Amino acid sequence: MEQENFSRTGRDRSHLASQHIAFAAQAGSAGLVNALTVDVEDYFHVSAFEGVISPSDWDSMPHRVVGNTMRVLELFAEYRVRGTFFVLGWVAEKYPFLVRHIADAGHEIASHGCSHRRLHHLNRNEVREELYRSRVMLEDMTGTPVEGYRAPSWSICSSTLWVLDELIEQGYRYDSSIFPIYHDLYGIPDAPRLPYVIRREGGTLLEFPPTTYRFSIAGCRWNFPIAGGGYLRLLHPQMVQRGIRHVNLREGTPAVLYFHPWEIDPKQPRVGVRGKSRFRHYLNLDKMEGRLRYLLVRNRFSSMCDVLQQTDRDIVVDDPPSGLEATLHGTSDATLQQGEK
């Protein structure tokens, strides 16, 4: 296996970036462009810190989101890639110039809500307000439509499926919030792994889940997350690359890569959390930028909107209706009304 050594001189980086188009063209004969996404929030917004950092403390915390996001933009410019930035409303209100700078650099702006409160902590009216306010705010700042949404901490799960109807009603075109995995905080394990259309009475919504790799153990199928956040920092980049190639070549579907600006900031202030929360947040922060470079030079990436436009056919569910479709139908009354508080 390759030695993981990503330290590069400026000349090395320039050479790698100049080879990006040729190298990426060889990355998959399927010719697919993968989605490159960034959740624009600061280190203190993460749900794992809810117990030690209150939203009332955010203003007094050292803010690092501007510098880290600018570094991400420099990285994308170096490799000539366009991405989608799911911007938290709190960040947009504090730093509107940052939102405009992202848009002026040619990237797609999408919504990450306003408060970074997980959706099961909000009632339907509060969710409706966040979806509306964040979209209008971002559209006013950039002058372009906001078509996509990603829930804080992947919090569209079995108990919050009613949010899908709100997204449709608000005019969102796509969502990227349903993680088809088992996790202690989020996920719908039986949800489809590949892009699919959710059809509701009020309209349709394209769901574009984060990328997972499917494997079987003792006859049971498991989805393993491979292409984002803490998983990208945990796994060796060769494993991630193999997973992306598998999804592209074997399953004929674009991958979705995601990360946060704070993940390329090993010098960020340390927060007093322990156990798995500390492990998940601080693992391999010093290696993250190098791992992104490894993937950027080997794959073709663009924004969610660009990726969704690369096919002229309807995207269909890759799993039988026993997955999310059955979940939606089975909870259409009880769960959808659960948000009415």
UniProtKB/TrEMBL annotation:
<dbReference type="InterPro" id="IPR045235">
    <property type="entry name" value="PuuE_HpPgdA-like"/>
</dbReference>
<dbReference type="InterPro" id="IPR014344">
    <property type="entry name" value="XrtA_polysacc_deacetyl"/>
</dbReference>
<protein>
    <submittedName>
        <fullName>Polysaccharide deacetylase</fullName>
    </submittedName>
</protein>
<dbReference type="Pfam" id="PF11959">
    <property type="entry name" value="DUF3473"/>
</dbReference>
<dbReference type="InterPro" id="IPR002509">
    <property type="entry name" value="NODB_dom"/>
</dbReference>
<dbReference type="InterPro" id="IPR011330">
    <property type="entry name" value="Glyco_hydro/deAcase_b/a-brl"/>
</dbReference>
<dbReference type="Pfam" id="PF01522">
    <property type="entry name" value="Polysacc_deac_1"/>
</dbReference>
<dbReference type="GO" id="GO:0016810">
    <property type="term" value="F:hydrolase activity, acting on carbon-nitrogen (but not peptide) bonds"/>
</dbReference>
<dbReference type="GO" id="GO:0005975">
    <property type="term" value="P:carbohydrate metabolic process"/>
</dbReference>
<feature type="domain" description="NodB homology">
    <location>
        <begin position="50"/>
        <end position="247"/>
    </location>
</feature>
<dbReference type="InterPro" id="IPR022560">
    <property type="entry name" value="DUF3473"/>
</dbReference>
